[in-house]
Design brief:
241 residues; mainly alpha; four-stranded mixed beta sheet; 4 strands; 54% helix
Length: 241
């Protein structure tokens, strides 16, 4: 999802990326496929006027997506990284993704199936929020990297987003169980269809990252309570820690 933050739009891709793909006899022979290696193409937005009312309500100021956003916006990766995020945009063809401007695209089909599961929505959106805090720079020529190096960088980036999601779920007051269950569902679908991905670490590793990050945030809160007593409040941790 996040390597779309690297400015990799179509025609300005370095020509030898294309040559390397063709020389290796890959199926990736057009710019859209190459963009999928570097990062997800921007999903196709859906006209809100064509959405059913219960989906429209999720995107409204008092809807579930905005409620989760208000919590995420108060979390920062470090003292210099706090994000408000851009717009939430209904789209097709994805579960969720984020663009370079911090707009979060949320799949309408995903919302139709899981829109009432607030804990899962929080986990998915927290993962995307982690991408907004990415340390990967813009305007870098990645041409010197091999495919294996590029895939490794991408897996690490996705792992960082999973780690942020685990920590954020605790800080927002959610359980990680729904996200873990969803990762297992996706893994079963991939196995049933015999699909492979270079994008993520294996599912067991992803689940462990989420769990360990959630538990680390929980321990940090417990330690703070032991040091500072009842003065420690979760809202203060979200806002000022």
């Amino acid at each position: 999802m996040v390597l779309g933050r690297i400015r990799s739009g179509g025609l300005d891709l370095p020509p030898n990326w294309v040559n390397r793909v063709r020389n290796e006899r890959s199926t990736l022979v057009n710019s859209e496929e190459i963009k999928k290696v570097l990062g997800e193409p921007i999903p196709r937005a859906v006209d809100p006027q064509k959405l059913p009312p219960h989906i429209v309500e999720m995107f409204e100021p008092n809807g579930i997506l905005e409620r989760i956003r208000s919590k995420l916006a108060r979390i920062r990766k470090d003292r210099n990284k706090r994000k408000k995020g851009g717009r939430f945009i209904p789209c097709e063809g994805t579960i969720a993704s984020v663009d370079e401007d911090g707009n979060v695209y949320v799949g309408v089909s995903f919302l139709e199936h899981f829109g009432e599961n607030e804990e899962l929505l929080a986990g998915i959106l927290a993962h995307e929020w982690g991408h907004m805090m990415s340390d990967i720079p813009f305007n870098v020529d990645w041409n010197q990297l091999t495919w294996d190096e590029l895939h490794a960088m991408r897996r690490d980036e996705e792992g960082d987003a999973d780690g942020f999601a685990g920590r954020a779920l605790f800080l927002m007051g959610y359980s990680p169980d729904a996200m873990i269950d969803f990762l297992n569902v996706l893994e079963k679908k991939r196995k049933d269809k015999n699909l492979q991905t270079h994008k993520y670490h294996n599912t067991a590793t992803r689940i462990e990252i989420v769990k360990q990050s959630f538990n680390a945030a929980k321990r940090a809160m417990r330690d703070a309570e032991q040091i500072f007593g009842d003065k420690v409040k979760l809202g203060k941790v979200l806002g000022d820690a």
